[in-house]
Amino acid sequence: MTDKLNLSNEEWRKRLTPEEFDVLRRHGTEYPGTGCFLGTKTPGIYVCAGCNNPLFQSGTKFESGTGWPSFTQALTPDSLTEIRDVSHGMVRTEVRCARCDGHLGHVFPDGPPPTGLRYCMNSVAMKHVPEGNPLPPVLT
């Protein structure tokens, strides 16, 4: 992974759409069932919408029935960071992009084999790069 990307909120607002900013920088979430990647089955790689850091391979995506795109594992062990989240009266594990610290979603221990994990992600926090296309450069 490349060095951490640290930008001011003003710089992030220039780079991101209002929806991306709300989720990635303000820890928002999209409504269940509304994300553009919910039913996507196209092979490829999912990258962070904030910095293009590669996050998930499409082969690890599964239908969880939760209303958000779900994955069983990260592309690499250093693609993501996990942080204890005690907001909204719950104890969860927040998932962030390891490069830009953008909020992606949460991970739960109720996924299918082989990992038993469900990375429940916001579509707006990611971009999909179809198989065979070059990955975009990680932003600086």
Strand and helix layout:
Layout: H1 9-15, H2 18-26, E1 44-48, E2 54-57, E3 61-62, E4 70-71, E5 80-85, E6 92-97, E7 103-108, E8 118-121, E9 126-130
Antiparallel strand pairs: 1-2, 1-9, 3-4, 4-8, 5-6, 6-7, 7-8
Uncertain runs: none
Gyration radius (Cα, Å) is 14 Å
Biggest sheet, spatial arrangement of strands: 3-4-8-7-6-5
How much helix is in the residues?
A: 10-25%
Principal-axes shape call: globular
| CATH homologous superfamily title | Peptide methionine sulfoxide reductase
Q: How many H/I helices?
A: 2
Number of strands: 9
Query: Could you describe the largest sheet, including whether it forms a barrel?
Result: 6 strands, antiparallel
Overall pLDDT score = 94
Assess the beta-strand content as a share of residues.
25-35%
* CATH architecture field: Beta Complex
Order of helices and strands: HHEEEEEEEEE
Name of the top-level CATH class: Mainly Beta
CA-CA gap between termini: 12 Å
The fold-level CATH name is Metal Binding Protein, Guanine Nucleotide Exchange Factor, Chain A
SSE-based structural type: alpha+beta
Question: How many domains make up the 3D coordinates?
Answer: 1
Describe what you observe in this structure.
The chain has one domain (9-130): Beta Complex (Metal Binding Protein, Guanine Nucleotide Exchange Factor, Chain A). Helices cover 11% and strands 29% of the residues. The protein contains two helices and nine strands, in the order ααβββββββββ. The chain has a six-stranded antiparallel β-sheet. The longest helix is centred in the N-terminal third of the chain and has 9 residues, at 18-26.
